[in-house]
Amino acid sequence: METPLSRKLRNYVPLGPVERDMLAEALEPARMVEPRADIVEEGEDPRSVNVIQSGWACRYRQFEDGRRQIISLLLPGDCCDPHIFLLDRRDHAIGALTPVSIARIGATAMAELMSRNAALDLAFHREALAASAIQREWTVSLGRRSGVERLAHLFCELHVRLSAVGLADGTSCPMPLTQPDLADALGQTTVHINRTLQDVRAARLLTLKSRRLTLLDPDGLRRLAKFDPSYLHLQASRVAPRGLEAPGP
């Protein structure tokens, strides 16, 4: 049975019917979370792994005075730290940006998935490494890219990630992020975000309308962002290490 999680993991390791069924069986019944509500709070004891079934969420840290930094964006199929249950407490919160359907895999079930099936073990490890690579690229953006480069890079990244799980339509994809969300993710003010959006629109690089992003000049946007998608490691979907080839569909 195909699920958003198996669709995501197939970008790292080919998975056959056995692996897809194992993932589907491990997922607990999904629950809905309202927009702007916490899925998990900072400091919780992480006894299970959360998986985004639909909608958009984010990892974030927030100061007592209300200032918030979005650390990463979580899209359908994303596994919110497959090894989080090894820690004693969660060091960040996960919040819903849109209505989110969330399912859980218990700690015992997750450990069994990885111990019983070598392909799934490899897929979860590659997914975790890719997530770390995305985090490094965000650090580069915050430290060295200009404001317009940061925004362009984020849009390029999200378009590729959504395409990888079948949620982009050519050069168009959903974009439910508000300007305050973009400001919190890119370390800027909403005023700066507004001006930057006007600049990229005026350059006819993209349009953003009705919660949908369309790349009018994908190559131009990539050049502006200095975007190289290799850090997403999605090309591994066609190659399995020797001895871990999954059976055909």
Task: Provide a quick synopsis of the model.
Keywords: DNA-binding, Transcription, Transcription regulation. The protein is an alpha+beta fold and 249 residues long.
SSE topology sketch:
Layout (H helix, E strand, L loop, with lengths): L3 H6 L7 H10 L4 E3 L4 E3 L7 E7 L2 E6 L5 E7 L4 E2 L12 E4 L3 E7 H10 L1 H27 L2 H18 L7 E3 L4 H8 L3 H13 L3 E4 L2 E4 L2 H8 L24
Antiparallel strand pairs: 1-8, 2-7, 3-6, 3-8, 4-5, 4-7, 9-11, 10-11
Helix pairs in contact: 3-4, 5-7, 5-8, 6-7
Succession of helices and strands: HHEEEEEEEEHHHEHHEEH
Return the CATH topology of the largest domain.
Answer: Jelly Rolls
Alpha carbon gap, first and last residue: 11 Å
Helical/strand content category? alpha+beta
Can you say what the CATH homologous superfamily of the largest domain is? Jelly Rolls
Assigned CATH architecture of the largest domain: Sandwich
Task: Estimate nothing, just give the exact number of structural domains.
Answer: 2
Q: Unreliable segments (pLDDT under 50, ≥5 consecutive)?
A: 237-249
Portion of residues in beta strands equals 15-25%
**Major beta sheet, specifics?**
4 strands, antiparallel
General shape:
globular
In the CATH hierarchy, what is the class of the largest domain? Answer: Mainly Beta
Number of strands: 11
Number of DSSP helical runs: 8
The rounded Rg comes to 18 Å
Major beta sheet, strand line-up:
1-8-3-6
Mean pLDDT: 91
Query: What percent of residues adopt helix (DSSP H or I)?
Result: 40-55%
Protein name: Crp/Fnr family transcriptional regulator
Keywords: DNA-binding, Transcription, Transcription regulation
Domain HTH crp-type: 145-219
Domain Cyclic nucleotide-binding: 11-78
